[in-house]
Specification:
It contains five helices and 23 strands. The strands form five sheets. A six-stranded antiparallel β-barrel has the order 4-11-14-13-12-15. The N and C termini lie far apart (about 110 Å). Among the domains are: about 90 residues, Beta Barrel (conserved putative lor/sdh protein from methanococcus maripaludis s2 fold), CATH 2.40.420.20; about 70 residues, Helix Hairpins (Orthogonal Bundle); about 80 residues, Beta Barrel (Elongation Factor Tu (Ef-tu), domain 3), CATH 2.40.30. By secondary structure, the protein is α+β, with helices and mostly antiparallel strands.
């Protein structure tokens, strides 16, 4: 069969395409370039296990002023936020009834004292008559009994007067502790019952944090351990404290242990009710291989680091133990001194070729031209 010129041309083109070598895979020959700042060497560093804490701050000491006697609240001179000192007068309850009762009690004391004087004189007279056998022993005993009864009535009158004086003194309301008024429950003019709440005073020079920790971590903690906290809304403020006591029993259901930490707040920047969280050392420090937390990735449920080994990128599956201060302790999969990709720079392929980009040479400053003036002619 005779081929036409067109068919011959198509055949020649097809043969050339078959003999031509395929183009190189650009992705296979690409070399990743890392800046020096993209890499960090894993290093050995001592780190201690930490237990996480969170809870609400509350005043270490708080007292509520209650009415010890019933009556109308005549005056209350403090409001929320006012600072008070222990023993400072902050209010008064109407004392009219209590003054009258005290006056009556004191009158009873005077009458009982007068009656006792008469009884004592009678007893003295009866003693002399008994000594001369002018009266019987029974008559003397009756006189002596009257004297004892008068003495008992005087003691009762004096006790009633003491109660009256105490009730009158209780109409004056005083601050029980140094602190700040955190709640004012009633207003002047209201009638308050016995034990009626009037104001609450909080001492915030020290605050207490109640936090729950797992039983396994609580077993490694002890009173006196130092804690480091941050407070909601005051992220720039680092707060130190210490564990003061640990509950001996686990909470039902959660099986966690409640511990109580004390925070010094003499500067007064903190307030009760703020949420705080932090950590406490829960064991002795050990030396670990550490890398920045930014180098760690989560891929398929695994913790992964990318390591520059020679001119290749290696994907390493690792295990970690402790994270604190922006660093993570690696317990397996990495050795100290290995070069790790510091940041998540996007998808990286295991086994890809890589190199470190050379640092740019510093620019040499060019000297400015100096103007030369001609020498003056003589």
């Amino acid at each position: 069969m005779k081929l036409t010129p067109i068919l011959l041309a198509i055949a020649a083109l097809s043969l050339g395409a078959c003999n031509r070598a395929p183009p190189p895979d650009a992705a296979a020959t690409a070399v990743l370039e890392f800046a020096a700042a993209d890499l960090v060497n894993a290093e050995l560093r001592p780190m201690a296990p930490m237990a996480q804490l969170s809870g609400t701050l509350r005043p270490w000491r708080e007292a509520t002023v209650k009415a010890k006697v019933a009556g109308e609240l005549m005056a209350l001179g403090v409001r929320e936020g006012d600072t008070v000192k222990q023993g400072q007068v902050i209010g008064r309850i109407d004392a009219t009834d209590y003054r009258a009762r005290l006056a009556g009690s004191e009158a009873d004391v005077a009458a009982a004292q007068a009656a006792l004087g008469v009884a004592e004189k009678n007893q003295t007279t009866q003693e002399s008559l008994l000594a001369k056998n002018f009266i019987s022993r029974n008559a003397y005993d009756t006189t002596a009994g009257n004297r004892d009864a008068a003495k008992a009535r005087l003691d009762a009158a004096r006790a009633a007067a003491d109660v009256g004086r105490k009730a009158l003194a209780d109409t004056t309301l005083v601050a029980p502790i140094d602190g700040i008024v955190s709640a004012r429950i009633v207003q002047a003019g209201e009638r308050v019952p016995v034990d009626g709440r009037i104001v609450t005073v909080s001492d915030i020079t020290r605050l207490e944090l109640a936090a729950s920790v797992p039983a396994a971590e609580a077993a490694r903690l002890a009173p006196g351990a130092e804690i480091d906290l941050t407070v909601e809304g005051l992220d720039d403020l680092r707060i130190g404290g210490r564990i003061e006591r640990i509950n001996p029993s686990a909470a039902p259901g959660s099986r966690s242990i409640e511990l109580y930490a004390v925070i010094d707040n003499r500067e007064g920047r903190l307030r009760g009710g703020l949420f705080a969280q932090g950590q406490v050392t829960a064991g002795a420090a050990q030396e670990y291989v550490v890398v920045p937390a930014s180098a760690l990735r989560e891929e398929g449920g695994d913790q992964v680091l990318y390591v520059l080994a020679g001119d290749k990128v290696q994907r390493r599956q690792v295990k970690t133990a402790i994270a604190q201060g922006g660093w993570v302790a690696v317990t397996s999969g990495l050795a100290a001194g290995e070069s790790v990709v510091r940041y998540n720079l996007g998808p990286l392929k295991d086994g890809a070729s890589a190199k470190i980009k050379p640092a740019a040479a510093p620019a040499v400053p060019v000297a400015a031209p100096v103007a030369v003036r001609p020498a003056p002619t003589s």
